[in-house]
Amino acid sequence: MKRWTHPSFSALSIRWPRFIPAVLACTLSLAAEAPKSVAKVLPLSLSEVLSSVQSQYPPYLAALIEQDIANGRVRQAAGAFDLNLSAGGTFNLAGYYDGSTGYAMLEQPLPFWGGSVYGGYRLSSGFLPNYNKERTSMDGEGVLGFRIPLLRDGTIDRRRAALWQAQIDQELADPIILRQYLDFIRAASVSYYQWTAAGQRFSLTEELFRIATDRDGAIAEQVKNGASAPIIRIDNQRLMVSREIAVVQAKRRFEAATIELSLFLRTRDKAMPVMVERARVPSSFGALPKVQDVQVPADLARALNMRPELRRIDLLVKRIEIDKRLAKNNLLPNLDV
After folding, report:
1. Domain 42-82+157-279+305-337 homologous superfamily, CATH
2. d(CA 67, CA 310)
């Protein structure tokens, strides 16, 4: 009977070089490609959310349209000071006098003291009586002059009042937009921190459930060995169920917080809501900036001066003052030069 003998080390050494280099090369290539295939996920920052609000949040973009509307009203009010061209004519179709007249007039309103300059040309033809004011010489007549009010419409008139109020409305759009911007920034910040807290709470509930599960295995081993009473494991299983319920509730809260955050975090190309993945939840809220007591009074004064509500009230008062001045102007008699 032939006995089996273990192969010698020299016999194995002849076969190793055939596959070991290939295995090593494959292992090294996989190790080199691993960092390329696994992308590092960065935590979501508050600045990223606020930047999305400024550039892609639809309600804020709609608020910016108020500025364009106010600019259009200023341009419309300024149109009252454009050069005006008027023309007309009269024709006698029947009767003893068969004359006709025509005229063309240019008038340029002035932006100061309610005045205007004008010039034009009149021409009549046919047979008109001498007492007809529209009758001119054969070559017609030119008109050139100016008008300056001395009492009524001197310091203010409807055209200038409308322009000034439109300019105030243009400035008034800024505090209105700023007020909405502050509201949007505050809502986005609250949504971000609620999402971060919900994500961290979700992780904590999962960790507590894992601890209870591991503890159940240890208790089961102790009960099996008679070191613990079976009631202890039953109580731990009750704890496991309660913690599993907490995990489900935390997951639902996190999903709801993610949906709310997607209202503020949007894509750059089409402004579509972004459902942030759980891997981007920050591990901490970050350190709060230190407040310097010396700088607090100056910061409070600066914040008070920059509040959009106070700026809006000041502009509304100026707008009402223009209405008051215009009402007093309408009580004055007409006296022009």
Report:
1. Outer membrane efflux proteins (OEP) (1.20.1600.10)
2. 19
